[in-house]
Amino acid sequence: MESVDLIYKAIYILAIFGVTLLIATYSTYFERKIAAFIQDRVGPNRAGPLGLLQPLADAGKLFFKEDFIPAKSNKALFIIGPGIAMLVAAMSSAVIPFGDTLIIGGHEIFLQAIEVNIGVLYIFGVVSLGVYGLMIGGWASNNKFSLLGAIRAASQNISYELAMGLSLIAVLMLSGSLSLRVIAEQQAGFNWNIWYQPLGFLIFLICAFAETNRTPFDLPESEAELIGGYHTEYGSMKLGMYLFAEYINIFVASAVMATLYFGAYNFPFMLELETWLVDATESAITANNIVTLIGTAVMFAKIFLFIFFFMWVRWTLPRFRYDQLMKLGWQILIPLAILNILLTGGGILLKDYLF
Questions:
Q1: DSSP secondary structure letters along 150-177
Q2: Are 259 and 96 in contact (CB under 8 A)?
Q3: Coil, strand, or helix at residue 22?
């Protein structure tokens, strides 16, 4: 019995890993297409029909390029840096519930790789390790532009992780749990946290842009000032791993926002649909599986909307100055996050008093 469950879990983990890599790969294609649309261009259209093979062509180009390591760099750390960035990014999606429960052959399969009661802390702990990949790569390159980019990345991540963590406290106060599955289940139907935490979501969204080094917070790799930032000296697949890790982080950030604030796999009239399907199919298991698959599709639709938003902002807004970046993080977002905690606590106490 346990061995069968382990096999199902292994298949699910491999599937999620493959889907994560596939989405990160084709995010590069859709980013180019979105940029082309905004700038009234065509975008990739040569490699395959509609340019759909462009990401594979890019991967092949990076894979076959000459692997260059600077003579005076720390060679071991130079190789380890992009590996840490990629590993940490791939680990982040392990606790995200992409759907409810499938029942196959009498076995319940939770569409979540790992269910831990501290899922939120797990994501924060793993994501905070990503900065080590950037710092190690920037320092090991023995290039002043790379080092400046690495320092910027570290200070930016530390600054915005504080506001991000404070914005999450309000959600945890409402849910009473650190488990992402519990938080998702509490938002059944249309009872999403965004209705109760609009300010917290806005703070989290801004911090997500900063944590993923995306415009307008792409100071660590700004070409106009630092040539390419922490990956200036990188080429071949080492550069590809840094770029790939960034797109995986965008996917994970989108999934976390969808889970915490937009109901995860829940959608309006979900319970009513399952009741109707039970009557129509005369099978509770079939109805449950259909609703679960629809919920998983809804979850990925929410994720894709956030990924689109990340890309739309990149090609719409200009980059912040570094002093503006720090001021926004320390003097605006952190006080707003603390205010949001106080307002949430006051609302909870008022509700308990009145009801």
A1: HHHHHHHHHHHHHHHHHHHHHHHHHH--
A2: yes
A3: helix
